Amino acid sequence: MNKQSKIFVAGGAGMVGSAIIRKLTESGYTSIVSNFHRRNPAANSTLDSSRYVRLDFRRQSDVEAFFERERPEYVFFAAAKVGGIYANNTYPAEFIYDNLVIQTNIMHAAYQCGVKKLLFLGSSCIYPKFTPQPMKEDYLLTGELEPTNEPYAIAKIAGIKMCQAYNRQYGMNFIAAMPTNLYGPGDNFDLQNAHVLPAMIRKFHEALVAGRHGRVTPVVLWGSGTPRREFLHVDDLADACLFLMERYDARIDIDRGLGLVNVGVGDDIGIRELGELIRGIVGYEGEIVWDATKPDGTPRKLLDVSRMNSLGWRARIGLIEGIKKTYEWYVAYDHRTG
Length: 338
Prior knowledge:
Blueprint: E1 7-10, H1 15-26, E2 32-36, E3 51-54, H2 60-70, E4 74-77, H3 85-90, H4 92-112, E5 117-121, H5 150-170, E6 174-179, E7 181-183, H6 196-212, E8 219-222, E9 228-229, E10 231-233, H7 234-247, E11 260-263, E12 269-270, H8 271-282, E13 288-291, E14 300-301, H9 306-311, H10 319-333
């Protein structure tokens, strides 16, 4: 890419997409277009120099018309329907349908208009529930998936296979990057749909505020607290995405059937330990209750990031530093924190 390349960030209104746009802007890229579905992010930011277009990726004709009109050279594919255990369990049809349709429409339109490179973002949930740890790229499709997010995982696996198929048949350069659990500014703190880390931040903060008003309340956290998870700050992911787009060619791995790269930190933490860590950062001194009637999900999810490290990239933001920054953002910008 050069600094004037036409770049499309699909899903630029979300946590990941907005982080990618920030990284591109900071790195001097000047021709960035993104999309929004309901609310234009540019209306609330004076720092975002990208251009936003209203676009529903589930409408094939609209997606094809957009690509034909805009003719992007590079695509960062950060658009997806995402959520935690509750959301995945409650809306399985939406998770598989929306993601399959979004992926199909964007990837095929990118092929039709001849994009130079596309980076598709998946998830570490693509790997089998009981796969050896840490999880290597080669472990894909070697066992059964975690039932609580199987529809989402199947959609993401289909996205990976689409990248590989388009590379092999059409000579495209579609990269599939699999990040570990993400967090950071712009995260979803809705308790019905949030992932574990932002949900904990909100619960501890609300309990802290309630205590200041004389309402002492315990914080109830899901599961046993025994699973282990790896967490990557979204700004590190954005840095990794730009690194891959600039330096990695998926076509060199066509014979191996890869074009797939794990992106993580290479270290994990127990959920119970994570709860104590966030409790300390927030400053909550009350009781924690673990609700063992709620599901734990996969026992452990730790990515093997040796392949990404061998390419020359490593995560830089430590977990304590990242959680502090995320909590500061939540308090400053989230409307529920008053």
